[in-house]
Amino acid sequence: MESKWFSRDATPPQDDTTRSLTVTIAPVPADTKQRIADATQDLLDQAAVPGLPEARRQELLDQVILLNSPIARSIASRYRSKGVDSDDLEQVAYLGLVKAANGYRPSESTAFLAYAVPTIRGELKRYFRDCAWTVRPPRRVQEMQGSIAAAEPELTQKLGHLPTDRETAEALGTEPGEIAEATAVRACFSTLSLDAPGSGEGGASLMDTVADAEDGYDLVENVHTLTPAVADLDDRDRRILQLRFCHGYTQEEIGQELGVSQMQVSRLLRGILDRLREELTAPQRAD
Fold first, then answer.
1. CA-to-CA distance for 193 and 48, rounded, in angstroms?
2. What pLDDT sits at residue 98?
3. What residue segments make up the domains of the chain, in order of their start?
4. Which of 10, 100, 175, 287 is 20 to 30 Å apart from 127, CA to CA?
5. What is the distance between the alpha carbons of residues 178 and 261, in angstroms, rounded to a whole number?
6. Average pLDDT per run of 10 along the chain, which is 287 residues long?
7. Are residues 124 and 76 in contact, defined by beta-carbon separation less than 8 angstroms?
8. Which CATH architecture group holds 1-131?
9. What is the phi/psi pair of residue 3, to 5°?
10. pLDDT given at position 190
11. Close Cβ partners of 280 (under 8 Å, ≥ 6 residues apart)
12. What topology does CATH give the domain 216-281?
């Protein structure tokens, strides 16, 4: 399966530990975890040889990434069903794997997976914290939600059922109230589209059930406000306003109706509007 990493529309920022790779991800070979770990360590040791050309080093690291890509996919799968596309999760997990391969130092005497797994999980948690929230809760709650998502699969397998808030709290060393609060924000990852079907019958969408803006109240308020100001105008000025704003006459048509020139209508209309503006913006006197 041909896959170009980080080739989606929103490309993650590049730094010294990330780069675009065009790779072929083959199915996981029928090999033991130990043999994969040994092969990975051998590749990393070769990449750490002093004076090795950069092109060769990158080639070795690419092999490390390909060899361990199923690990990244497996970790990403634990964060599914959270309102984020699976392909996006895998992209983020691969980014964490690339960072781990570039940042790993064989001299530290730590197994590669012991360094890579927390790095991948950290990258996924940062993605959820920074990018995946529709409604953003406090950071403390975000991080707790990520910890719950990572712990639930293991707890479910161990207990034989979905863990309760208390069981999850005991596993994470926190209070059940913290778990309940973090669990409650899971819906913040996604919102329903207005094109989604509504709850009623007839095929109506959610958009069809949203009330339209009511213009009637604004109209009543405008009429109530304008009435005393217009009442002070003479008959000709009120007739000009009626022709212009009620009947939609042009200034030329108003001039023909009143027997005056278009320029005179323009001056008259401007004067009327100025008087109304002054009347409406004048401070109201107390009774």
1. 50
2. 92
3. 1-131, 133-191, 216-281
4. 175
5. 77
6. 38 41 41 79 90 91 91 84 74 90 82 86 77 61 74 76 86 87 64 55 57 61 79 88 88 89 90 86 61
7. yes
8. Orthogonal Bundle (1.10)
9. -140, 130
10. 53
11. 225, 226, 229
12. Butyryl-CoA Dehydrogenase, subunit A; domain 3 (1.20.140)
- Determine the residue type at 212: D
pLDDT given at position 82: 62
CA–CA gap between residue 191 and residue 181 (Å, rounded):
19
Q: How far apart are CA 85 and CA 76, in angstroms?
A: 11
Cβ atoms of 168 and 179 closer than 8 Å: yes
Per-residue burial over 234-268, b if 16 or more Cβ lie within 10 Å, else e, is: eeebeebbebbeeeebebeebbeeeeeeeeebeeb
Residue 78: count of CB within 10 angstroms of its CB: 18
Q: pTM (2 decimals)?
A: 0.42
| CA separation for the pair 12, 125 (Å, rounded) | 15
Report pLDDT for 62: 93
